[in-house]
Design the sequence.
């Protein structure tokens, strides 16, 4: 009704003085009269059984097609949502996470590259460059999605503006250091301050915003379609009532058409329920064992990276390095708690228990412990003034060194993060597969049900002729 | 709309429509303001980074400013090069190494040489002389790098045996720690960008001038009116000067010379306006150590001082002779 009404309005406004106005009025009047006639005829025929039967048939078919349409759209929406998780939302969150960890990694590596001797510098330098490149590339990917949320866009702006400044400072530090100028160390400290006070908080905020959006979308994907369910149950009730009505009127137990329709609707209902339960469970499992675990692991890894940055900076900033040494102890406690197996790593272990990442997390806990011990020895050397030994222990890839323990820890946590992401992909793909062909199936079944109703009621109607 | 347009077209001559439509289009296009081009990012202004821990004027320390009436540079008479049992030196000898609080950021005095991985400089060599006297081996010293502000706390808490870190001896500091005789005479001057046209501290009224926190220089700047900016380490001052966040750095000419060496676009200007006698800081109560170190310094003045000066300082600041020791 709205469409003709709407266009009539426009025409009336647009051509109010047109000579054709009376014609339109007559047409509208005719339409109203037609509707009135139809209604009167319906009222008359509803008083008789055949008329009532046709009306029931029309109502049932309409309701069936409506339920079919709504549930098909619902199922397609669910499928789109879960595919969106897999193809867009989670990858974007992962990019935001990469920005955060690549930046932390760059900071942790830059100081080491300044401390180390030539061969080691080369390797650390490469790692630093790779981290910066990774951060830049991931930022570009994360930026597109971040534009949808003003707070996220703001963080992208901060990182985009400050990252070139940061790399500039690191290069200035490097150039001065190469000439043997102590001002190089001061530039590096300034770079580190910029990273910690401005860039990393923005990267963290961006990551947390994206993680929040992912969780929200996962919740939405799992939500139960109450409206569709009520509509479908209403349809089943209507079908059963109609059959009871026909049974009383015609004394025939079964109407094949309506039975086919009922079966089709029940099959739809059952299929949808099973698919949605599997879907919900799998999306939930992908969220709990996949993304949430990965999120916890990411936080843990970033604390480890920041502790590493403090460890190396405490040696670069000798003399002003106490705050970094304290930073390391604080972050190290945060990482492993008081006994090395508590803190963030303890939480991660609890979460990963029985999962594919369990082994990795256990190894990471051992790495963290040997790293902490290595740092104690670095601190001893440093306090005794044996700077060379302290640097050697911090940078070299020896078995006893802090570098080896840290890198092993970092690798294990990265792999565990990948396991978490894999878990998400596995579960969420299963969730998506559970909905495979469901929209199309529901559409077909609703057409079958509608045909069944038409044929079934049509048969009865023929008996009245 | 399409059917109606077609009806109109039928009713009116086609060429009229052809003429009218563009005219109508132009009329509509000219109506109303067009708005402005949209800038998605707006005008961005660079936010310039600063070194960590930048501060302002120094806090008033108890008695530091007022108490100038002691004989600051007069130390204890040397008492020979022997190390008696139970003395502070004997403890150090038994430990196997001397612990010296030094700087790693002051070019020419105490700095980290990335090529060798070692700390080098005039102060470092003085500390090595003390170690050489105790152990007969100049390498038996462990360097702890400390900031300017950490010098007195490190001595009072006994974290280090000596501090050789461009440390000016004055009465206020004498209340907290012991000092050896003076081993170097410096004076506060000003480092500016060569193109700035500044000739002395007086030209810097109302400008930002940088010094390390806890240093006497910072106090002197604060007294001489310019707006003081404090940083944890001297090198941070050079960073801020290079980044044009301060107009000048003012401290001992020795430290400034090291900075000028790192940046040829800067120069040291003005006459020295303070006397900064450098002495070795020693933990309070270690009087035997003071006498011992003074004996070491007597030897250094006679023997190695010129060699060390020529190696580190002479190329930048020109010739000088060792300061005379004064004892009370």
Sequence:
């Amino acid at each position: 009704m709205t469409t003709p009404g709407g266009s009539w309005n426009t025409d009336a406004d647009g051509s109010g003085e047109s000579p054709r106005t009376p014609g339109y009025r007559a047409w509208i009047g005719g339409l109203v009269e037609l509707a009135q006639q139809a209604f009167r005829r319906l009222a008359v025929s509803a008083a008789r059984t055949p008329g009532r039967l046709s009306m029931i048939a029309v109502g049932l078919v309409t309701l069936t097609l409506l339920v079919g349409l709504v549930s098909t759209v619902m199922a397609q929406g669910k499928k789109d949502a879960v595919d969106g998780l897999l193809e867009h939302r989670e990858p974007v969150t992962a990019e935001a996470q990469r920005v955060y960890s690549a930046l932390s990694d760059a900071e942790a590596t830059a100081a080491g590259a300044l401390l180390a001797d030539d061969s080691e510098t080369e390797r650390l330098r490469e790692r630093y460059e790779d981290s910066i490149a990774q951060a830049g590339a991931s930022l570009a990917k994360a930026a597109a999605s971040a534009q949808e949320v003003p707070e996220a866009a703001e963080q992208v702006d901060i990182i985009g503006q400050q990252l070139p400044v940061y790399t500039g400072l690191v290069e200035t530090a490097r150039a001065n250091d190469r000439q043997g100028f102590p001002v190089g160390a001061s530039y590096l400290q300034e770079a580190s301050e910029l990273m910690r006070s401005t860039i990393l908080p923005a990267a963290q905020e961006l990551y947390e915003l994206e993680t929040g959006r992912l969780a929200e979308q996962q919740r939405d994907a799992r939500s139960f379609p109450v409206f569709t369910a009520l509509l479908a149950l209403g349809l089943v009730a209507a079908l059963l009532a109609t059959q009871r009505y026909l049974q009383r009127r015609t004394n025939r137990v079964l109407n094949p058409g309506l039975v086919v329709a009922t079966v089709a609707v029940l099959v739809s209902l059952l299929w949808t329920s099973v698919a949605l339960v599997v879907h919900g469970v799998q999306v939930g499992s992908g969220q709990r064992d996949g993304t949430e675990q990965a999120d916890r692991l990411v936080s843990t890894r970033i604390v480890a990276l920041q502790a590493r940055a403090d460890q190396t900076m405490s040696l670069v900033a000798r003399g002003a390095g106490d705050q970094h040494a304290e930073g390391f102890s604080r972050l190290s406690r945060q990482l492993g708690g008081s006994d090395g197996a508590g803190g963030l790593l303890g939480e991660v272990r609890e979460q990963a228990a029985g999962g594919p990442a369990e082994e990795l997390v256990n190894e990471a806990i051992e790495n963290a412990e040997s790293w902490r011990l290595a740092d104690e020895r670095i601190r001893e050397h440093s306090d005794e003034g044996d700077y060379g030994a302290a640097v050697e222990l911090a940078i070299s890839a020896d078995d006893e060194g802090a570098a080896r323990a840290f890198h092993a820890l970092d690798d294990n946590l990265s792999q565990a993060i990948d396991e978490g992401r894999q878990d998400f992909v596995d579960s969420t793909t299963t969730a998506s597969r559970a909905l495979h062909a469901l929209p199309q199936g529901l559409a077909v079944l609703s057409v079958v049900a509608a045909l069944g109703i038409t044929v079934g009621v049509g048969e009865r109607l023929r008996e009245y002729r | 709309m399409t059917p109606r347009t077609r009806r109109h077209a039928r009713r009116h001559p086609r060429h009229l429509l052809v003429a009218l439509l563009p005219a109508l289009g132009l009329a509509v296009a000219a109506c109303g303001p067009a708005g402005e081009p949209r800038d998605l990012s707006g005008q961005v202004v660079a936010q310039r980074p600063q070194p960590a821990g930048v501060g302002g004027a120094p806090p008033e320390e108890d008695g530091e400013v007022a108490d100038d009436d002691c004989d600051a540079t007069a130390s204890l008479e040397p008492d020979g090069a022997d190390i008696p049992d139970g003395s502070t030196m004997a403890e150090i000898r038994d430990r196997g190494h001397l612990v010296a609080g030094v700087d790693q950021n002051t070019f020419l005095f105490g700095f980290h040489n990335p090529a060798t991985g070692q700390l080098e400089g005039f102060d470092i060599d003085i500390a090595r002389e003390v170690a050489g006297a105790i152990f007969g081996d100049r390498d038996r010293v462990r360097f702890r790098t400390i900031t300017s502000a950490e010098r007195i706390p490190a001595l009072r808490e006994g974290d280090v045996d000596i501090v050789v870190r461009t440390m000016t001896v004055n009465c206020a500091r004498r209340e907290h720690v012991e000092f050896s005789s003076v081993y170097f005479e410096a004076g506060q001057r000003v480092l500016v960008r060569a193109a700035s046209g500044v000739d002395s501290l007086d030209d810097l009224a109302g400008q930002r001038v940088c010094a390390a926190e806890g240093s006497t220089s910072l106090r002197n700047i604060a007294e001489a009116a310019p707006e003081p900016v404090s940083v944890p380490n001297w090198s941070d001052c050079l960073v801020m000067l290079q980044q044009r966040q301060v107009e000048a750095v003012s401290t001992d000419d020795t430290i400034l010379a090291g900075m000028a060496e790192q940046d040829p676009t800067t120069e040291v200007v003005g006459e020295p306006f303070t006397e900064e006698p450098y002495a070795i800081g020693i933990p309070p109560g270690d009087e035997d150590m003071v006498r011992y170190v003074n004996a070491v310094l007597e030897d250094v003045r006679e023997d190695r001082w010129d060699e060390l000066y020529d190696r580190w300082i002479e190329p930048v600041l020109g010739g000088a002779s060792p300061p005379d020791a004064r004892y009370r």
User: Anything to note?
Assistant: Chain B has twelve helices and 13 strands. Chain B touches chain A through 46 residues (CB under 8 Å). The domain at 188-269 of chain B is CATH 3.40.190.10 (D-Maltodextrin-Binding Protein; domain 2). Residues 1-9 of chain B have pLDDT under 50 and may be disordered.
